[in-house]
Design a protein that fits this description.
By secondary structure, this protein is α/β, with parallel strands linked by helices. The chain contains six helices and nine strands, in the order E-H-E-H-E-E-E-E-H-E-H-E-H-E-H. The model has no long low-confidence stretch (mean pLDDT 91). The structure holds adenosine-5'-triphosphate (ATP) and magnesium ion (MG).
Length: 209
């Protein structure tokens, strides 16, 4: 059997908007390891010197609207092919939490992937230095759509200090390699960890101009 690297992204269209210089995913397949915490802290850190947005790629259980205290619904709609991210702390944020509201919606995998594509296609972020995607847990339709079609420029993987979440972060690393997405950092998160050093290294790796 050949060991040749398979680049699944060949000829795949990128859903990344044109005005976005760098599109970085925050992923780790194990739930609850701190992906959202890292994504939000990294957004705040990078926003000191850069224009930053975050896309909440957790379609069925979004949390960024709660983390940032964003009330109400976004302007625009998928039908109109225009969704206007909200802004807090100078960061542009799009979350299904401000689209579907408090209603519990059952999302089959393909439906969730389709909703994610709408967020990627229709969100009017304008020009941004960095857009972060806060991934959902798992290796299902939504993460695979982001890997295959999202046009990600890099990935930050998050694990906890435990062996199981590290095991799943390694699986994610393998998938990123298959899709030709550079893994910029593997962050071992734990309660009260100071992430400043990790973020300083990351800022240098993310192509910012
Ligand atoms: N470094 C940390 N210090 C203290 N609490 C933390 C830290 N990282 C995460 N937490 C807490 O752990 C919980 C889970 O974190 P978070 O929501 O960021 O994980 P997640 O990986 O995004 O979860 P999910 O897989 O459900 O998306 C939250 O209550 C969060 O506040
Ligand atoms: Mg999360």
């Amino acid at each position: 059997m050949s060991n040749a690297k398979v680049n699944f992204r060949i000829n795949k269209p990128s859903l990344k908007s044109k005005g976005i210089k760098s599109f970085i995913g925050i992923w780790g397949a194990k739930g609850g390891v701190g992906k959202t915490t890292v994504a939000v802290s990294l957004a705040r850190f990078l926003s000191r010197n850069n224009s930053v947005g975050i896309l909440d790629a957790n379609i069925d259980c979004p949390s960024l609207h709660k983390v940032f205290g964003l009330e109400g619904k976004v302007f625009g709609s998928s039908e109109k092919k225009e969704l206007y991210p909200m802004e807090k702390e100078g960061i542009k944020i799009i979350s299904m939490g401000n689209i579907t509201g408090d209603e519990a919606i059952l999302w089959r995998g393909p439906m969730a992937a389709s909703a994610l594509k709408d967020l990627l296609n229709f969100s009017r972020f304008g020009n941004l230095d960095v857009l972060l995607a806060d991934f959902p847990p798992g290796i299902g339709d939504v993460p695979m759509t982001l890997l295959e079609e999202g046009g990600l420029d890099g990935m930050v993987l998050v694990s906890g200090p435990d062996e199981i979440s590290k095991y799943y972060a390694e699986k994610c690393k393998g998938l990123c390699e298959k899709f030709g997405i550079p893994v910029l950092a593997v962050i071992e998160n734990k309660p009260e960890k100071d992430l400043t050093t990790d973020f300083e290294k990351l800022e240098k790796k993310i192509k910012l101009s």
